[in-house]
Specification:
Helix 1 crosses helix 2, helix 7 runs antiparallel to helix 8 and helix 9 packs antiparallel against helix 10. This protein has 17 helices and 15 strands. By secondary structure, the chain is an alpha+beta fold.
Length: 472
């Protein structure tokens, strides 16, 4: 074991300060003033690394084929302080040189990784996030690991030539990063319509494909749009028959109008090839469109996802709602939707009235009354936003149909308008309790505001209660 040199004591103080353990904003116990130069310390630490002053360990980074070698002069105290893996490795070494085997992508960013250990900061591009996360995970540098996970979740919407969200999802699944995995999957589901148009769609794995196809919260224009994209994926990837059949069986054909079903049967080469595997679904879908859903339910058990709508952006199922200056007054709008997805209900329309209130008070914050009827004073600084959606016609016309309302809330991220939140309710967002709770619409720079306006999309999802008995 190499004995530490005097410079290690200086390094320790610098590292503690750079890590923020010596707080610059905390006054000394004697009540005096504080002089703080944290940037100077970071600059000195960086210089220490670049100039290799007092270095006592050499890191030799090799790729599997030994086609690339990086040599970094470092300091064992800094490495040990930041990484328990390095600490154990350096404790048991018998040479001043430590050989590290890394993949090519990790070797390419290893100097950035080491610089973070010295300076506590890092600059990176989208394509460097995964290898840096790998290094942070391998060497158990938890602060960097969490920081890169946060970076990735905040940059899901950023444009790149081939897309990055699907790749990040696969990586998160591999390393068990639940936060990143769930964030990527949610982004893909809630922004699927734009994902289908990107180069990223064709390259997704069959496992991710099946995960997405099974979800009812997919946001896209229509089920036809999803089938068209699936067809392109099958043609491009040529999966085995079982994978293709399972994917095609996850399409909700009953949500397509009969004219589209006829067109697909006559024009789709993929459907022609696998028609036997989905024949029963097409048959049930045509029956669904030809008879009253209540009548059909008397003879067939059709409680399955085939008859559950997704979050379709088509005007048949909802309407965009742009609310200008959403912090001022109540706003209202009206729109129409088809009574149900069955063609039996194609000519029947439901008119909906929607009310947006920026300062609604929840029950727990409303004024209380005493036994004598006098109002109990209650101090309230402000209410929360809420949306109420009610039908303009009698509910007697909706026999057997229950409506789930969904509000898609958009946000501006990386210059793009993306779906940030999806709220499901039956009449009012009061049922959620957290509707726009973190939006802070009073802040001009809020990501939820585009030129001072709130961008929403209201979707009405009709569910035939005699058919659907379980939530999907």
């Amino acid at each position: 074991m190499v004995k530490p040199s005097p410079i290690h004591g200086v390094l320790f103080l610098m590292e503690v300060a750079a890590a923020g353990l010596l707080k610059a904003d905390v006054s000394p116990p004697d009540g005096g003033d504080t002089i703080s130069h944290p940037l100077t310390l970071v600059q000195r630490l960086e210089a220490l690394l670049l100039q290799a002053n007092g270095s006592d360990v050499t890191l030799r980074v090799e790729t599997p084929n030994a086609d690339e070698v990086k040599v970094i002069q470092a300091h064992s105290l800094v490495l040990s302080l930041q990484s328990p893996v390095f600490q154990e490795m350096l404790r048991s070494r018998n040479s001043s040189t430590v050989v590290l085997g890394e993949s090519s992508d990790c070797a390419a960013v290893f100097d950035k990784f080491i610089r973070y250990l010295y300076c506590g900061e890092i600059s990176l591009r989208l394509d460097q996030a995964t290898p840096l996360h790998k290094l942070a995970t391998k060497y158990q540098v938890l602060s960097l690991q969490r920081g890169i996970t946060h970076y990735m979740t905040q940059n899901l919407a950023r444009d790149s030539p081939s897309g990055q969200v699907a790749g990040w999802y696969e990586y998160a699944l591999q390393v068990g990063d639940i936060t990143l995995r769930d964030s990527c999957l949610q982004f893909l589901a809630w922004n699927l319509s734009s994902v289908l148009q990107s180069g990223e769609w064709i390259s997704i794995s069959s496992e991710l494909l099946m995960t997405l196809l099974g979800r009812s919260d997919l946001v896209l224009h229509s089920e036809v749009e999803l089938f068209t994209a699936l067809e392109a994926w099958i043609v491009q990837n040529e999966p085995d028959s079982l994978t293709a059949e399972n994917a095609l069986r996850a399409v909700r054909y009953a949500m397509m109008p009969p004219r589209e079903l006829f067109r697909l049967q006559t024009q789709s080469t993929v459907l022609a090839r696998y028609q036997e595997s989905v024949r029963d679904l097409l048959y049930m879908s045509f029956q669904f469109h030809s008879a009253s859903p209540l009548q059909m339910a008397k003879y067939f058990d059709v409680n399955c996802s085939l008859f559950v709508p997704r979050n379709y952006l088509s005007s048949v199922w909802g309407s965009q709602w742009i609310i200008n200056n959403p912090t001022r007054d109540d706003r209202s709008t009206s729109f129409q939707t088809q009574l149900g997805p069955s063609s039996h209900d194609a000519s029947r329309r439901v008119t909906w009235n929607a009310l947006f209130s920026p300062r609604w008070l929840p029950l727990s914050m409303r004024p209380m009354y005493t036994e004598t009827g006098a109002m109990q004073p209650t101090r309230v600084d402000g209410g929360r936003p809420r949306i109420i959606i009610t039908p303009a016609t009698s509910s007697a016309d909706f026999a057997g149909v229950n409506f789930q309302k969904t509000v898609l809330v958009m946000a501006q991220q990386q210059g793009r308008l993306v779906v940030k939140h999806v709220y499901n309710f039956h009449q009012s967002t009061e049922e959620n309790g957290d509707f726009l709770s973190d939006a802070n619409l009073y802040r001009r720079t809020s990501e939820y505001l585009v030129d001072g306006s709130l961008f929403l999309h209201v979707v009405v999802k009709p569910l035939y209660q005699s058919l659907i008995t379980t939530k999907n």
